[in-house]
Amino acid sequence: xxxxxxxxxxxxxxxxxxxxxxxxxxxxxxxxxxxxxxxxxxxxxxxxxxxxxxxxxxxxxxxxxxxxxxxxxxxxxxxxxxxxxxxxxxxxxxxxxxxxxxxxxxxxxxxxxxxxxxxxxxxxxxxxxxxxxxxxxxxxxxxxxxxxxxxxxxxxxxxxxxxxxxxxxxxxxxxxxxxxxxxxxxxxxxxxxxxxxxxxxxxxxxxxxxxxxxxxxxxxxxxxxxxxxxxxxxxxxxxxxxxxxxxxxxxxxxxxxxxxxxxxxxxxxxx
Length: 271
Known about the structure:
The chain has helices at 2-45, 52-56, 71-103, 106-120, 124-139, 143-168, 172-180, 185-215, 227-238, 241-270; strands at residues 60-63, 66-69. 82% of the residues lie in helices and 3% in strands. β1 and β2 form a beta hairpin. It starts with a helix and ends with a helix. The protein is mostly helical. α4 packs across α6 (143-168), α6 packs across α8 and α8 (185-215) runs antiparallel to α10 (241-270). The protein is built from 10 helices and 2 strands; from the N terminus they run ααββαααααααα. It is globular and about 75 Å long. Strands 1-2 form a two-stranded antiparallel ribbon.
């Protein structure tokens, strides 16, 4: 009876949360449907000859030899590769900067702070140009490597502050209590601080990951044919401005929603 009485409020809260979630989700779908309807109504009233089929063929077509990937699909694959390698570099550089700021000496703290402040107060496009036109000359970077390097270091500066805030959000009293029980610094950090810090940093880390996906569109400035640049090439060839940018925007939206869904699933499994 005691266990049932304790679990009943939790079940009630979960049912209430699900009810609110379903209501909010249906409202969200209704608003999206209204926006789409208004756009389509205006598009039909304009009398323009829309060519959605030609734009969608940019993802690929089936021929007698089989499936032939189009520029949009190839650009999407390039964007995914940039985001994947850029995310790995961003996490590594962010963790390194956080460790230097929290656990390093004065010199390490100064270097980490200088890196974070320099990156966060200058545009990403400038870093891409500097990497491609200067560093690439000395380190023989390709356009792809230049984009990954610039994007990873840029997003890593923001992730460093996210990691630092998550670690500092854990009360010091918990670490002190763990040390009083005989745990060393490493074990106290791994078993007490890190699990709580992960829960703290997950939502802002997902938001920063979505920003990384959107920022990858700037890689087209150095002649790298990612998703946005592929859209520009299709517009130059077909003059389908509205259709192409709508499809490109919908693709980026799909990537962002996919990241959010994966994050929510991981958070539910951990919690």
